[in-house]
Design brief:
The longest helix is centred in the C-terminal third of the chain and has 19 residues. The radius of gyration is 18 Å and the shape is globular. The mean pLDDT is 94. With 260 residues, it is α+β, with helices and mostly antiparallel strands. The protein starts with a strand and ends with a helix.
């Protein structure tokens, strides 16, 4: 499963993970380098690299074997209104942000600029707003986007996950028990990790999530910008998406524009 990798169970205790395209191949070495350092400093389990495979038999990239983490991927309904899950995720991300960033990987094309400047996606976002102007409050979307661009990250660089989505959060018995897929992790502006607050959380859960994180108002403005960008490009058809993702992007767009 997954968009950028294909993962297969290997016995009872391991998983094989293979990049699905060249753009995702650099993530393998990054995870092998940094997950053993990050893992002991975080309050929830993350993948433990066991071995790195080499290109062979026609498969062109390096690949990984990890220890298997128990739990099932979170779904939208679980996180949408769950105060408990929102707080657990906030505490995990707060702990990640406190890890020493020295020498960590920087944002760039390899992680799709997560943790970098939103300006990388300025043209794409404005194009999406133009395409959707008959369906959304385009003026409100433009004001929100301009506000996000006008609120740059001025604090120290911090660790960020880079792809905080329901499919990368593992749950058991209604509790968050693990976080996977650190291929987009970087050291930079962690505001992108907060976008789930609008993409997947209703207002009460979003407020609980925010309350657990020591992030200033500027970070939340940028986070709303990240959520707006993603919802716009999916809703406008600028990236391929299955019908369920398209439906959820419309819900997220409504939340982020109204903050409801």
């Amino acid at each position: 499963m997954g968009w950028d990798n294909r993962t297969f169970r290997l016995g009872d205790d391991m998983a094989v993970r293979l990049p699905s395209a060249r753009a995702y191949a650099p993530q393998v070495e990054k995870e092998h380098r940094w997950l053993p350092i990050l893992g002991p400093q975080l309050p929830l389990p993350i993948p433990t690299p066991i071995a790195m495979g080499q290109p062979l038999h026609g498969y062109p990239w390096r690949w990984s074997i990890y220890g298997w983490l128990p739990g099932k991927p979170l779904n939208i309904k679980q996180v949408s209104s769950s105060h408990r899950l929102a707080c657990s995720l906030g505490m995990f991300l707060g702990a990640l942000q406190r890890v020493d960033p020295t020498g960590g990987p920087l944002p760039g094309p390899d992680n799709f600029h997560r943790g970098g400047s939103l300006r990388v996606y300025d043209v794409e976002t404005r194009q999406a707003i133009s395409r959707l102007q008959a369906k959304i409050d385009a003026k409100a979307a433009m004001r929100l986007w301009d506000a996000a661009l006008a609120a740059p990250h001025e604090g120290p660089p911090m660790w960020l996950h880079g792809d905080v989505s329901v499919g990368n959060l593992l749950v058991e018995g209604g509790a968050l028990v693990g976080v996977i897929d650190f291929g987009c992790a970087a050291v930079g502006d962690p505001a992108c990790d907060l976008a789930l607050a609008w993409s997947s959380m209703a207002r009460r859960a979003r407020h609980a999530f925010r309350a657990t994180l020591n992030m200033d108002d500027s970070a939340w403005i940028r986070a709303r910008g990240w959520a707006l960008w993603k919802a716009l490009i999916v809703s406008a058809g600028l990236v391929p998406a299955h019908p369920a993702a398209e439906k959820q992007s419309r819900v997220a767009l409504g939340r982020v524009l109204s903050d409801a």
